[in-house]
Amino acid sequence: MTDRWSIHRHLAETADERLLLVRQVPQHIILAGADNDISRRLLAARYPQAVFSEYDSRREFLHTAAAARKGGLWQKLTGKSIPQVCQAMTAPLPEAQADMLWANLSLVLADEPLPVFQKWAHALKTDGLLFFTHFGRDTLAELKGRLNGHGISCETPALIDMHDLGDMLADSGFYDPVVDTAKLELSYRKAATFWQDMDTLGLRRAVIFSDEAEARRLIDGWFAEGEVLSVTLETLYGHAVKKLALPQGENVVRFYPKG
């Protein structure tokens, strides 16, 4: 059986490498999205003193993450469990509680990223760190083009251009937003593996077919004919820092010594 979490692991490990340049040591980390405990393990190894809380709208993903931790060395040594909350992406998080918010491929569940970024900003303390991974608008371009040739249109409103995401971060209470991109090319020989990945990655939900039943029939038919289906994932890596939030009409006044 294939590892259904391999893409999550690759993106989490790549994002974790960027923390080498971060001097701030977070004490409370919000995991906005469960990924089989992959991100939590990486972050706990880097920040052993950190306390975690985990949120996801998919109850089965939360259960999978909890099961991955159960009986693990960390849990045996600490006797602790991670608080989990099942709620929608746009539901409120505890305000100004976290030093870091980490979201590995959970933004794909949002119909619109902007309100999610706003909720994430409210959850972070001033100068708190946001790190997230996502898929760009060129994801599955080959598949969408091929289906379009059969008269099936494919809309992906949740998959946003990297520059637009940067603008949204700046409009949501963050400064120094950085979003960059890379590409992953995948080849599938079995329909079951392809659809499993589409489910786990959230892309099954993110891609809206004009005729879903016909799209499924065509894709399954290509596999049945022995074709290898190659797809490209445009992966996005983003980070930003939470701005100081002031009441309306107030501004920061700084005094500098002469000389």
Automatic annotation (TrEMBL):
Highest taxon in the source lineage: Bacteria
Annotated GO MF terms: methyltransferase activity
Coiled-coil regions listed: none
A single BP term in Gene Ontology: methylation
Keywords: Methyltransferase, Transferase
SUPFAM superfamilies associated with the record: S-adenosyl-L-methionine-dependent methyltransferases
UniProt-recorded name of the protein: Methyltransferase
